[in-house]
Specification:
This protein is mainly α. It has helices at 4-36, 41-67, 75-102, 106-111, 117-139, 143-173, 180-212.
Length: 216
């Protein structure tokens, strides 16, 4: 169990993580909203505010880790963790921005509901949420559960990859019914969303490295 200032830093890391989770939730909600009524501007505006708050938290966290003697030789690992997680909100924001600005066909996205576009995004969100559980286990000094959570991140990332493959196949299978520009935009959104799960896995690998270096 960590104490004192290090405990406060881990609390701040978890608070920062929570903004990344919120961004991913809004990514999923953006697609749900677009499929139902096409209006995602309010989601984007809220996500933009979340991403800006995340940036502020990350800068403060990195500054504190850089100037303080925390975690012995592991400060750089925690800085890397913060900088890696930053890409979760960034990718989520870009995807929702594409929904707002591209005017991608709702009909084209509806064709992909058969290949589970929402299931894909739910798996992405699960990988991010599992990262949060891993960070919480680290805060509480629970090594066993932390290892289990890191493995679960990998499993959800693999699930997202599998559904992504189905989506890409479905996208091109329906190419005769979808405008070429919509195909390009949708594939870009799928790839960027998949990046979110990959980033969660990368962050989990950093936590694993922290454990391997002897963190307790």
């Amino acid at each position: 169990m960590v104490m004192g200032k290090e405990k406060a830093i881990l609390r701040d890391i978890y608070e920062y993580y929570a903004t990344q989770e919120k961004a991913t939730e809004m990514l999923l909600e953006g697609f749900r909203r677009y499929l139902s009524d096409g209006d995602v501007l309010s989601i984007y505006e809220e996500l933009d505010a979340v991403e800006k708050r995340a940036d502020d938290l990350r800068r403060g966290l990195v500054d504190e880790l850089s100037k303080g003697a925390y975690f012995a030789f592991l400060s750089e690992d925690f800085i890397e963790l913060a900088n890696t997680m930053d890409e979760i909100a960034d990718n989520s924001k870009v995807v929702v921005k594409l929904l707002v600005e591209s005017g991608v066909s709702v009909r084209a996205l509806t064709l992909l509901t058969e290949t589970r576009i929402l299931t894909f995004l739910e798996a992405v969100l699960k990988s991010v949420r599992m990262l949060g559980e891993a960070i919480d286990a680290l805060r509480k000094g629970k090594r066993g559960p932390l290892l289990e959570k890191i493995r679960s991140i990998e499993l959800y990332e693999e699930e997202a990859d599998g559904v992504k493959d189905e989506l890409i196949k479905g996208l091109f299978k329906n190419r005769g019914n979808i405008d070429v520009l919509d195909i390009v935009i949708i594939k870009e959104m799928i790839d960027l969303s998949d990046n979110v799960a990959d980033i969660a896995e990368d962050a989990g690998d950093i936590l694993l490295s922290v454990l391997a270096k002897g963190y307790r």
